[in-house]
Amino acid sequence: MILIVGASGKLGHAVAQQTLAAGTAVRALSRQPEQRLATLKAQGAEVVAGDLRDPASLRRACAGVSHVVASAHAIFGRGAERSALVDDQGHRDLIDAAKAAGVRHFCHISARGAAPDHPSAFLRYKYAAEQYLQASGVPFTIVRPTAFLETHAYELLGKALIEQGNVTIFGRGTGRRNFVAVPDIAQLIAQIWADPSAVGQTIEIGGPPANNLTNNEVVTLFEQLTGRSAKVTHVPRGVLRVMSRLLWPLHPGLSQVMAFALHDDIHDTTFDATALLERYPLSLTRLDDWIRAHCVPGSVESARVQAKMPGT
């Protein structure tokens, strides 16, 4: 049985569905399982209540499972749900619970760029959790994805363009970065389970070369493919830098998002998938193909987007 922590999130849900389709038992953990995991329950998953801030719930969730996928995060969290309690201490407690339960393989979803000196606390917490896992004695694989296409390209840029005609870009929008589709990461995780050489490894995954884009280019791509135009507002880098510092005591989640965005606006964070594809036969999703499938008028997914637009 595979335990998926964060099963109500994009990646956790995709991994759960893929695992169930393959005929493997899934235990899906969420703070509100009955509300958020009804679909997975209907598909045969065992859904359980649990919280990364509640070590006892993690021990119960890990009992009897052989594999764990840790995909939950709290990048936007504040107060009792702040990132330090979830992405750092919460994952340490999960690793301890997995070790006590004798878990045979622990897949930790980190983030590309995680480092002890990253300007965003979120990436520092991710790095700390990696280090704790590596020292724990639990057989592990660390997966470091680039920016989720569905979140960073669509929800933060394309969705506002489609629904409102206005887009806000943090910084100049000129930093070149990479976007990866969630189902592609789920594909990789499935192949990792079948690859003994993946144990003890850190594996980076990103989208194809066509997904090495600036935020400005992402907005242009959405405009070209959807036929909509956008009024683009840029938040200056200096404002991001100051606001990130000022917001830290009040809203650490928003503060670390701003620091993350500023870093990626300044630095080149593109990805070369050559080594990844030599090792794992993945079919990586291009952003333009994703937009055509989900956002262009006439597509099935586009109809769902249109149904949510004001006045429709």
Gist of the model:
By secondary structure, this protein is of the alpha/beta class.
What does this structure look like?
Keywords: Photosynthesis, Photosystem II. InterPro entries: HCF244-like, NAD(P)-bd_dom_sf, NmrA-like. Pfam families: NmrA. This is NmrA-like domain-containing protein. Residues 2-250 form the NmrA-like domain. By secondary structure, this protein is α/β, with parallel strands linked by helices. Mean pLDDT is 93; it is low at 302-312. The termini are far apart. It has helices at 10-21, 33-36, 38-42, 55-62, 83-101, 121-136, 149-164, 182-193, 215-226, 237-247, 252-266, 274-279, 287-294, 300-307, and strands at 2-5, 26-30, 46-49, 67-70, 105-109, 140-145, 147-148, 166-170, 177-180, 201-205, 212-213, 231-235. The radius of gyration is 19 Å and the shape is globular. It has a seven-stranded parallel β-sheet, sandwiched between helices. The protein has a three-stranded mixed β-sheet with strand order 7-9-11. It has 14 helices and twelve strands. 46% of the residues are buried. The protein folds into two domains: 2-145, 3-Layer(aba) Sandwich (Rossmann fold), CATH 3.40.50.720; 147-180 and 207-270 and 285-312, UDP-galactose 4-epimerase, domain 1, CATH 3.90.25. The longest helix has 19 residues, at 83-101.
